[in-house]
């Protein structure tokens, strides 16, 4: 078994435009999806949601505000899962609720150092 990182990207304006009821429904879908992965014994780390603000440090120690100034799409969070292959991890990611909100999931193998 190998470990994989799921990086969740979306437009933060989508969540900002949701009603409290829609946010609650969305959160339930996320918890059900993550719970399903955990029930299979394949959840390595529940990860966390990331704040919208931040800084990027570039070469020559140049600092810019916010990591997403060039795009509407931002990294919203991550989890780590365990799977036999990239294909299996990708199949797990296909159930992610972010897909129904126009977001995407980047699936990356983790290389332990």
Order of helices and strands: EHHEEEEHE
As residue ranges, the low-confidence spans are none
The pLDDT mean sits at: 90
* Percent in strands: 35-45%
Please state the oligomeric state of the protein chains shown. Answer: single chain
**Class per helix and strand makeup:** alpha+beta
Tally of separate helices? 3
Q: In this structure, how is the largest beta sheet organized?
A: 4 strands, antiparallel
- For the CA atoms, what is the radius of gyration? 15 Å
Q: Into which percent range does the helicity of residues fall?
A: 25-40%
C-alpha termini separation:
16 Å
Could you tell me the number of beta strands?
A: 6
What attributes characterize this protein structure?
alpha+beta, 29% helix, YCII, four-stranded antiparallel β-sheet, Dimeric_a/b-barrel, YCII-related domain-containing protein, 6 strands, 113 residues
Describe this structure in words.
- There is one protein chain.
- This protein is an alpha+beta fold and 113 residues long.
- 29% of the residues lie in helices and 35% in strands.
- Strands 2-5-1-6 form a 4-stranded antiparallel beta sheet, with helices on one face. Strands 3-4 form a two-stranded antiparallel sheet.
- Strand 3 (55-58) and strand 4 (62-65) form a beta hairpin.
- It is flat, with a radius of gyration of 15 Å.
- It starts with a strand and ends with a strand.
- The mean pLDDT is 90.
- This is YCII-related domain-containing protein.
- Residues 10-113 form the YCII-related domain.
- It holds the Pfam family YCII.
